[in-house]
Specification:
Blueprint: H1 13-20, H2 54-61, H3 70-78, E1 85-86, E2 92-93, H4 96-112, H5 116-127, H6 143-150, H7 154-162, H8 174-187, H9 197-218, H10 225-252
């Protein structure tokens, strides 16, 4: 199907009717009265400095999604799929993350014909906020969905693939999303994918160390469960050690305060939740 065709927002007729009502509204003025809340809440009155107006969002998304309109964006907000901030005067202000989320939603509708309920479940899974989302891998994403979910540019993803931090494929999972989102944040501080090669090399060496340590267990007959438990346990210990050593280096450089618990990094649990020792105890 062509990229210009926009399927209904949901499988139900009511959703489709709601989404398309007012779709002929073409005004992109920031002063559109329909773009202002009647009684903004305290949270909505939070300053959204740096955000863009609904008209600017349309300017960015319309070339890829010609049927997007102010009423459609407002409908998605009313359904809880996006939550733009409000200016002090009550106007919607959209961040880069909001625009990426909109692109993800519109792409899922156009390319996969997904109803809003399914899209919201997928977004919740990616955010880690949906029921049972903890420990459940995100649904496989296309390349465009991955970029939209992470709010990343194609060039960044291509570089991460070039340096081996993300494996190129037909679909991408939650691991790729975590790496890409992290790379976006690091890029804000001038850290580029080429700088992350040392991180990838260290991770590869640590994985090899775990593999070597559990090799005797993998050669035993019967269930692989003991080997899997041991690998997860060792990986958790190594990750804690790595975080602790990084923080110790920052303390020595005067860039961090001493941790309240010696040998334990701030924000890193002293015991990895959900992991048991190799013995199973």
């Amino acid at each position: 199907m062509t990229g210009g065709h926009q399927p209904a927002l949901a499988s139900g007729a009511q959703d489709g009717a709601s989404a398309n009502s007012g779709s002929s509204v073409n005004s992109r003025s920031a002063a559109d009265p329909g773009d202002r809340a009647d009684q903004p809440t305290a949270d909505q009155r939070t300053s959204a400095r740096g955000g863009v107006s609904i008209g600017q969002v349309l300017d960015e998304l319309s070339p890829e999604f010609p049927d997007v309109s102010p009423s459609k964006i407002r409908f998605l907000e009313s359904e809880g799929l996006i939550q733009p901030l409000r200016s002090s005067s009550g106007y919607r202000r959209f961040s880069a993350a909001d625009i990426a989320r909109l692109r993800f939603i519109l792409t899922a509708q156009r390319d996969e014909y997904l109803p809003l309920r399914v899209i919201k479940e997928r977004l919740d899974a990616l955010d880690g906020s949906g029921p049972g989302s903890q420990g459940v891998p995100a649904a496989a994403m296309t390349r465009s969905e991955l970029l939209a979910a992470a709010g990343a540019a194609e060039e960044l993803l291509a570089e991460l693939e070039e340096y081996g931090l993300i494996r190129r494929g037909r679909s991408y999972g939650d691991g790729a999303l975590t790496v890409l989102r992290t790379a976006v944040r690091l890029g804000e501080h001038g850290i580029q994918p080429r700088h992350l090669r040392v991180v990838k090399a260290a991770a590869d060496r640590e994985a090899a160390l775990v593999e070597q340590a559990v090799a005797p267990l993998t050669r035993q007959k019967g269930s692989r469960e003991p080997a899997l438990r041991a690998a997860h346990d060792l990986a958790a210990h190594i990750a804690r050690l790595h975080a602790t050593l990084v923080e110790a280096g920052l303390v020595e450089a005067g860039l961090a305060s001493q941790s309240a618990h010696p040998g334990t990094s701030r924000g890193v649990p002293r015991e990895a939740p959900g992991l048991r020792s190799a013995s199973g105890r």
